[in-house]
Amino acid sequence: MSANYYGFEKFCELLDDSNVLKKHSVMGVVKMLQLCITEIKSQILKDILELDNTKIDYYLESKILQIEKQDYLKDYGVEKISHFLKRLNVTVEQLREFEYDQELNNIIDKNLSLDTYHDNFDEVRAIQESFLYYFLAYYAKELIYFLKSNKISYTEIPITKEEMMDTENINGLLDEVFKNIIESNNERIDLDRELNVFHIEGRNYSPELEEGFENDFRFAQWMVTVAIQKLQIASVQNNYFFFDCAFSVYENHYEQRLLEFIKEHIDASEADFIKQELQDIYNPKEMRVLMHNKETVHYHSFIESENKLNFSKNKKIAFLTEKLKKEGWIMKFTEDTFLEHYDRLIPGEMIFEKIDEVDENINSSKRIKWIGKPSQLGFIMSNLAQLGYIEAPLRKNGEINYLQFARLVMQTIECETTESTLSKYLNLDSEKGQETLRKFESKNFRIPHKKEIS
User: Fold this and answer.
1) The pTM is what?
2) Which residues lie below 8 Å from residue 48, measured CB to CB, with a gap of 6+?
3) Is pLDDT above 60 for 201?
4) Domain boundaries, the chain
């Protein structure tokens, strides 16, 4: 995050920074607090317009909690600095409006670096510290008051008979999931016990036993996956949250879950919550847990195909990465990947980096807007690479790194898609790439090789 960024995270940093006077004068801090307040109020009002009434109070309360968790003197009132104000012959209003005599600059607008000697250093520092404590408390209260004033009173809609029927439907689907997983797990225990008896008695190993179990397990996988897909649909009707719920349900629960996260983790911010959510989504093994009738099951290994659940997953990732950008962060991955399953690719290490907002704005303004389809962009960029017009990033084995290729393309071209989706279109050997290739070939589309026209 650049020094020129003024927003909610910067505001909280100023409240919490016990060494801020080593870097700025007290009036420099006051100016930054004012810039932050202006930017935050503007952003909050924009966000509220986009939120449903049921989410506004959760959103505002999460911001209030983040402010109150910062380490500043919350009850430091004007009476604490009244003797200094009298000595300097200045009012709080004049300080806030920067309408004081310039001769006071040597006291209240002086950078008190400990590396440089200052006359009456201790006295000046005492004044600046007192003013700092007062203004931190003052602007924190102002922002909290603004947030509280925008809260609404929302009356929860009573559950209707139809919604009760939806709940019964969800319970039925959960029963189906639990039944198949528990039965399969018990069959695995029985198989291990039987194989152990074979070993103890010295009998020949019987592969038919494991083959029978594998057939039953695959059937259980299919049954559980179908039930989870149905649970996704039912969750929309009843706003039922679970790890693989539909995106609309995830969005509905976001503010409430954010608030619970901040209450539980004392120094956490919204950015921390988003990072944790993204890590969980990309590594779902431990998160795929269902609770029902005081029982718990892990259903990750019973998902027959990740592709059947990826639509909701991709929407959640897009939603979270956009929110993360607003908090001043971006998400990246190392190039390493891990194939957990034939259709389940685990990305490399997840890295979060702060955005230099100035550079981000410059780069954003220079991006070319793509108005075609993502599949068409992937096809054309892939062709340009294959035909010698551009260089695509390569892995150590010489093959194209399609995820890195997609990332570079999206840094230059604005397109409504994700890096993961674009990487599949860039790979013309993939199923998505082949489909686009056939469409272009049907129209006799061809780009000549660079050598043909050189």
Assistant:
1) 0.54
2) 56, 59, 60, 150
3) yes
4) 8-149, 161-311, 367-453
